[in-house]
C-alpha cells in the first residue's frame, strides 16, 4: 500500500503568481554590503561563515542589483518548472525551491513571505539538495 501524502494537494501556481515572485535576499547569508544593507553572516578566524547554534552558514555571493534580478528569474524558473516543495503551513507559495543555474550550480530558496512570494536563497551542493528534496535528477 502506498504511503499516504503528508501535505494536501495544491492547485498549480498561476502565471500571475509566478511573475509576482521575487528574490529579496537575507542579511544572515551575506558577509558583505548588499542592496539590503550590511550583511550579518559572521565569518570566523578560518574565513568560514557561521551563525551561533547553527552547523554552518553558506554565504550568498549575490550582492548587486544585477544579481537580484538574476535570482528573481531563478525563483520564477523554479516555480515554473515545479522545482519546489510545499510544507503543510504554507500559504500561496511553497516554502522550499531549488534551481540549477547556467553554470550547473544548485541554489536553494526559502520563502520568507508566502503571501507575496518573496524568497531568500544561497548556493548548495548536491548532498544538501538531496537532503532537502530527495533524489531529484
| Percentage of residues in strands | 15-25%
The major β-sheet equals: 5 strands, mixed
Order of strands, main sheet, comes to 1-7-6-5-4
How large is the radius of gyration?
16 Å
Domain count: 1
Low-confidence segments, given as residue ranges, are: none
Question: How many angstroms separate the termini?
Answer: 25 Å
Provide the succession of SSEs: HEEEHEEEEH
* Average pLDDT, all residues: 81
**Class based on secondary structure composition and strand pairing:** alpha+beta
How does the overall form come out from the CA principal axes?
A: globular
The count of helical stretches stands at 3
Percent helix, as a range, is 10-25%
In total, the number of strands is 7
Amino acid at each position: 500500500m502506498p504511503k499516504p501524502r503528508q501535505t494536501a494537494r495544491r492547485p498549480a501556481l498561476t502565471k500571475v503568481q509566478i511573475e509576482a515572485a521575487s528574490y529579496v535576499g537575507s542579511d544572515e547569508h551575506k558577509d558583505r554590503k548588499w542592496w539590503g544593507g550590511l550583511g550579518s553572516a559572521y565569518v570566523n578566524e578560518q574565513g568560514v561563515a557561521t551563525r551561533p547554534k547553527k552547523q554552518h552558514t553558506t554565504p550568498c555571493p549575490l550582492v548587486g542589483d544585477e544579481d537580484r534580478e538574476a535570482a528573481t528569474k531563478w525563483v520564477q524558473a523554479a516555480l515554473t518548472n515545479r522545482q519546489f516543495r510545499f510544507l503543510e503551513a504554507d500559504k500561496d507559495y511553497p516554502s522550499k525551491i531549488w534551481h540549477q543555474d547556467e553554470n550547473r550550480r544548485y541554489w536553494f530558496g526559502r520563502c520568507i513571505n508566502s503571501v507575496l512570494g518573496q524568497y531568500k536563497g544561497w548556493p548548495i551542493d548536491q548532498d544538501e539538495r538531496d537532503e532537502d528534496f530527495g533524489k531529484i535528477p
